[in-house]
Amino acid sequence: MNHDALAETIRIEGTRILATLIRTVGNVQLAEDAVQEAAVAALGAWPVTGVPPEPRAWLTVTARRKAIDIIRREQSRGAKERDGADLIELSKREIDTEDVVQDDLLRLIFTCCHPSLSPPTRVALALRTLCGLSPAQIAGVLLTTEAATTKRLVRARQKIAAARIPYRVPTEDELPERLPAVCAVIHSLYTAGHAPAEGDAAYDVDLCGEAIRLAELLHSLLPGQPTPTAVLALLLLTEARRPARLDDAGDVVTLDLQDRSLWNQELITRGVTLLNDSLERSARQADAYQLQAAIAAEHARVPSYPATDWREIVRLYDLLVEVSPSPAADLARVVAIAETGEVGTALELLDAIPPSSRRHAVRAELLARTKRYAEAVNELDQALALAPPNHPERSHRERRRAHFRRLAQRQPLEH
Amino acid sequence: MPQYLALTYTADVDWWAPEQAEELAEYRRFGAEFAEQVKASAVLHPTSTATVVRVEGARGGPVVTTDGPYAETKEALTGYYLIEAADLEEAVRIAAEIPAAWGGAVEVRPVILAR
Questions:
Q1: Above 50 in pLDDT, residue A199?
Q2: What's the average model confidence in pLDDT over A24-51?
Q3: How far apart are CA A20 and CA A337, in angstroms?
Q4: pTM of this prediction?
Q5: Contact B110 A166 (CB under 8 A)
Q6: N or C: which end of chain A has fewer CB within 10 A?
Q7: Closest CA to A180 of A216, A123, A228
Q8: Which of A162, A192, A35, A175 is nearest to A109 (CA)?
Q9: ipTM
Q10: What integer pLDDT is reported at residue A163 of this predicted model?
């Protein structure tokens, strides 16, 4: 095993070990330090001794020993006495059963995503404890500094300890109010990973991959819950299109121009199966994840852009803006309405949406459909001015602007 | 058992005014219902009766007082409950029953207990 593969194994195993260790020692910081020390020990020893036959057992036992060392060091400095029970628990040699680990992983997920923590803190904690990323890597995701991220993590652990955020799995009837925060963390990780153009190398971690791993984990831990199933479906259906999203130059390829043979059919099939399963299990009105997954599935189902059933897509967006209103959903709905042929209606609806770079870009396309090219150029000027210089759609929009400008020049002047 | 201080922030009212009687009764009902968990509580006179005290320099220095509350805010600190709860989730469940939680807000802070 090379160094990277080794580090990856240790990182993934680390989460499982951490989840149980937090419960045993009752302290996030202490457990994290112990797992970190065990990881360092493994990275030092394994390249020399070879990977042990049972790496999981090796890491578990080592992390427990490190935890005992830390507790002894704390006690020699006069920290409060612990009852002997957790030291005995830490001294055992057998590794925990899968049931115990799964339960602990759920505890860890729900603690990281506790409603009494702020949303960015939930994201930071999830990346630290569930994904094993470093504060420097997390800072890149949260668009902040390593120092600020470290401070945020320290404060979060202090709050968990001082305010006693319980380390437990919510009961069945609490799940509906606790799951949205967890799902929002996973979805926002995927969105953050998906937004920057690859090649830009905005992040040095594969956030989309991490988000899918967490979605798989949550779904496997709570297979009967429709929302985590829908989140996994949505992520897989979006991921399926990723290979077609950028051209060789790294520019964004819009849906109408994507080479659909590049779409990952395996992911699409699995996503659709999960979505149907999720819909069958929910008695209530479809939630935002189910609707977004259904929209993605509708696009994935048809062989080409012109074959898209836009009336069905508009129907799904109508439901989406009702259960989860957002400017992004409003814009996507307007685009779908325009695709059904109602360009005039779409242009009128656009006026009610708050101005943004994307709104100007959408308006430009709609104006061009009605041959108002000069106005379209003007809208794209504004879209480009409002977007950051490294915006992934910048060169696409510049090309469209040049195209509309040429078309505008060919038009006779109106008096 | 862990303790939490639940600070009530509401409109800055005079609880003794006759028009507050009904609302005050709601607070009393909360206090009676959670008598077991509430270890101490107080309702405060309006912020217009507050005095902020500072000592200039070090201890023993000149005492400077200013009229009014420490911080002028739209919602004022109007009372507190010292609550006993197993963990934050239980503390939040109890705090959500304090009448200040609707129309105002309740800040829940863990109390440092002697080791």
A1: no
A2: 91
A3: 51
A4: 0.85
A5: no
A6: C
A7: A228
A8: A175
A9: 0.87
A10: 94
- Taking a C-beta distance cutoff of 8 angstroms, is the pair A314, A333 a contact? yes
Measured from the Cβ of residue A64, the count of other Cβ atoms closer than 10 Å reads 24
A162: contact with B, CB 8 A cutoff = yes
Indicate the length of chain B as a whole number. Answer: 115
**Can you tell me the distance from the alpha carbon of B36 to that of B43, in angstroms, rounded to the nearest whole number?**
19
What's phi and psi for B107, nearest 5 deg? -95, 125
Please count the residue pairs, one from chain A and one from chain B, whose beta carbons lie less than 8 angstroms apart. Answer: 23
Q: Which residues of A touch B86 (CB under 8 A)?
A: 164, 166
Tokens of B68: 């009014």
For residues A199-215, one letter each, b for 16 or more C-beta atoms within 10 angstroms of the residue's C-beta and e for the rest, the string is: eeebbebebbebbbbbb
Q: Please report residues of B whose CB lies closer than 8 A to that of A163.
A: 4, 88, 91, 108-110
Residue A118 token pair: 């702020």
CA distance B79 to chain A (A): 21
Please answer whether residues A300 and A273 qualify as being in contact, where contact means their C-beta atoms are separated by less than 8 angstroms.
Answer: no
A317 CB contacts (<8 Å, ≥6 apart)?
Answer: A295, A329, A332, A333, A336
Asked whether the beta carbons of residue A163 and residue B89 sit closer than 8 angstroms, the reply is no
What are the phi and psi torsion angles at B39 (to 5°)? -90, -25
A252-292 pLDDT tens trace: 888 999 999 999 999 999 999 999 999 999 877 899 999 99
CB A295 within 8 A of CB A321: no
pLDDT single digits (tens) A221-262: 999 999 999 999 999 999 999 989 888 887 788 899 999 999
- The whole-angstrom separation of Cα A221 and Cα A216 is 9
A413 contact B CB<8A: no
Instruction: Specify the pairing of strand B51-55 against strand B38-43.
Output: unpaired
Please state, in angstroms and rounded to a whole number, the distance separating the CA atoms of residues A167 and A149.
Answer: 23
Which residue do the tokens 């990856």 mark?
A: A8
CB-based burial label for B66 (10 Å; 0-12, 13-18, 19+): exposed
Residues of B in contact with A165 (CB under 8 A): 87-89
